[in-house]
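On clarity, I found the account of how folds are encoded harder to follow than it need be. Since the whole study asks how a given chain folds, the encoding of that fold should be made plain. The format is easy to grasp once an entry is in front of the reader. For illustration, here is how one protein appears when written out as sequence plus structure tokens.
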Amino acid sequence: MELTRRERWRLAFEAVVTAGIIFLCYFAVYEIFRWFVVTFGTVFEDFWFFGSTLEDIRTQELWGLTPLVFLILIIVAVVAIFWRLKRRYRQYEMQHVIKELHYIAKGNYTHRISGNYSGSMGNVIDSIHVLVDSTIEAMEEERRIEQSKDELITNVSHDIRTPLTSIIGYLGLIEEGRYESEEEVKKYVHTAFEKSKQMKTLVDDLFEYTTVRQTTTPLDYVTFDMIQLLEQLAIDFELEAREKGREIQVVAPRESLMMRADTEKIVRVFNNLLSNALKYGKGGKVIRMEAEKKGANAVISVKNDGETLPQEAIEQLFERFYRAEVSRSQETAGTGLGLAIAQSIVELHGGTISAKVTDGWTDFTIVLPLNTEETVTKSK
């Protein structure tokens, strides 16, 4: 820490004052002792170790002491002055730190306390910087959460408003009698019904998303065969895939892959991935699900050879309400929450999910811990 000019002058003045006080103390002690020697000389003469020193004390002033004694007194004085100035310097350091802390507290969180501090003061400064950094991080996280809430409200409002406007419009036509035949009424009602289902899907997905986003969401763990589960999913989607000219394949190097997880939520993950592959993998012929064991994890890939997405779209796929379609069409696009829900479910199980494009294949890879007794024992 660099002292100001005023502080340096104050330190110099304090050094002079301290030296003067020490000299006065020396002089007072010496004079008091000499008075005792002069007044009670006979008492001190009985002590042989005083010798001729008593006579010297009677006749000499303080500055007449021997050089050795003077040197000792000077060393003691220098030590006392240094100790006093060091304490004062520490006080100045503390004042500087407090002043800069007040500056930081006014909202200047990027400011750092300047100067080189050592010892305990240096540790305090480092702790302050860590505290400020963590405070900034917490504030940024809170800001991101608030922004995320605003975006959530905006996106939900947008997605609900479109079908709701259609429902109100068609029901309004019926209410006002602005139709020419019963067939036209049925058409209006059917359209309103379809839009209502879209709204219900959005509300259901939104509810599930907010549920699985909570880290305290309970999971109903059961032991199951992942490969068998994938084969069952392939059967469930077989009819829809055939209608779109696709084939769903399950590829695994082993007959079974036992693991523990919440099967209901895991099925939701693969339902979302398969639905997306069928919906967006235009021009593709094959949807392939691969599963293998790597260490204590199960690695499952869901890939399709349909139309691929650009890298910037791949990086945003797991953001809620994101759709690769710029138009956000309700006919081909869903709520935009499917992959965000899938990611949250995988993370609840302690796993990861990622997407990439390789050799014309859009590949979603999921890594889940097996959580079986065998893997737990080996990890220990």
